[in-house]
Design a protein that fits this description.
Layout lengths: L6 H12 L5 H15 L5 E8 L7 E8 L7 E3 L3 H9 L3 E3 L17 E9 L2 E10 L7 H20 L3
Antiparallel strand pairs: 1-2, 1-6, 2-3, 4-5, 5-6
The structure holds methionine sulfoxide (SME).
């Protein structure tokens, strides 16, 4: 039995399970289940989606996640690594969270983090956030895998507007 799973295999598994999704939350749940189960350094995997209400600043709201409960269920766009990714529209990779003053701690065990925005028609609507108990866990191939997963959700939301 194989002891490691390549990112390519995981990408295929994600694509396969995505085809069976019946709603956007179902798609997000399917994606994070595969990533959390198959990528052994991905210790917390979750989506935050932007809530926009009239007369209120937009805010990231915790959606589907796998891993320990986080105290950060609502994050303003000017807070945390999550806020930085959402407000810049760029993937943020932090190799050592202790060295990043923006970091909001979810778990004392977290050492590195990646946050990838989800776009619908060019606008950020949410993000896929992953924490690792290992420093510098997110290499270029991880970034490519996580960006692929975030794009799947963006494409789904474009086709199935809420
Ligand atoms: N670390 C994030 C907060 C979310 S938890 O990691 C799940 C941040 O700095 O924005």
């Amino acid at each position: 039995m194989a002891t490691t799973t390549s990112n390519e295999e995981v990408r295929r598994e994600v694509s396969q399970t995505a085809q069976a999704a019946t709603s956007a939350p179902d798609l997000m749940a399917r994606i994070i289940r595969v990533l959390h189960e198959r990528m052994l350094k991905y210790n917390w995997v979750g989506f935050y989606m932007i809530e926009r209400k009239a007369d209120q600043a937009p805010i990231l709201v915790l959606g589907k996640f796998e891993g320990a409960m986080t105290p950060h269920t609502r994050i303003r766009l000017n807070e945390g690594i999550c806020g930085a990714a959402a407000s810049s529209g760029k993937t943020v990779v932090v190799d050592d969270v202790t060295q990043d003053t923006r970091y909001l701690a979810c778990s004392l065990e977290t050492k590195s983090e990646i946050v990838v925005p989800v776009f619908v028609k060019g606008e950020v609507v949410g993000e896929l956030d992953i924490d690792s108990h290992f420093a510098a866990a997110f290499k270029d191939e991880d970034r490519a895998l996580v960006e692929f997963c975030a794009a799947l959700v963006g494409k789904y939301l474009e086709k199935h507007p809420a």
